Amino acid sequence: MYLDQAKMKEEALHQAGFEDLVPCTEDEIAFLERWIKRPFPQAYREFLHWMGYWGGGLLVGSDFFYDRLMNMQEWARALLEEDHYPGELPEDAFVFFMHQGYRFYFFRFSEGADPPVYYYLEDPEKPEQSTITSAYAHFSTFLENAIDKGVKAAHSLAALQAKIAKMNPERARYLDALDKRRRRRGE
Predict the structure, then answer these.
(1) How do the pLDDT tens digits run along the chain, 187 residues long?
(2) Parallel, antiparallel, or unpaired: how do β-strands 93-99 and 103-108 relate?
(3) What single-letter DSSP state applies at residue 127?
């Protein structure tokens, strides 16, 4: 429904070398909703049912999936406090993505079935000047963009690996095995 465009890109993920997507169960989603004391927007629920537990290597190195969602709420607030951010997250914010502890994305429960996405990026030089900005008009757009970037990065990596394979086949096999292990671990 809300993620139809994103789901049409699933084959491109697999062709680019991404593993199978792993959905959350309805019980896992219900657990999160009880914990957060709110039902998720439909687009986000659809995401959780599609690949909420594991995205096959998509957004590897970032916290985006089920097993980190509860911690991210606290981590984001701690980052704002550490940066002496003058405001705070809205009461109805849900942080669904965090990267390396210095940036995160969130949506607000009050903003509809496919809510806008907001972004916080820590300014390492002047953390007190870091800001929250509007990033995407909809969660579905965020996800489509993430898939497009992931596929593009995978194709670039494949082209580089092919180039290395021509120059040094043994090194190419080693790097390929290393990449597969990294993806399995979710790095």
Answers:
(1) 888 887 887 777 767 677 777 889 999 999 999 999 999 999 999 999 987 767 666 666 677 888 889 999 999 999 999 888 888 899 999 999 999 888 999 999 999 999 999 999 887 777 667 889 999 999 999 989 888 887 776 655 666 666 666 677 777 778 778 777 766 665 5
(2) antiparallel
(3) G
**CB–CB of 89/95 below 8 Å?**
yes
User: Residue for token digits 């990065």?
Assistant: 153
CA nearest 106: which of 92, 118, 90, 124? 118
Domain boundaries in the chain? Answer: 18-185
Which residues, at least 6 apart from 24, have a Cβ–Cβ distance to it below 8 Å? 48, 49, 52, 53, 66
Partners of 69 in the β-ladder: none
Residues contacting residue 122 through CB under 8 Å, at least 6 positions apart: 79, 83, 102, 103, 130
Q: Which two tokens stand for residue 99?
A: 């990267």
Just give the CATH number of 18-185: 3.40.1580.10
d(CA 123, CA 127): 5
* Overall pTM > 0.70: yes
Coil, strand, or helix at residue 22? strand
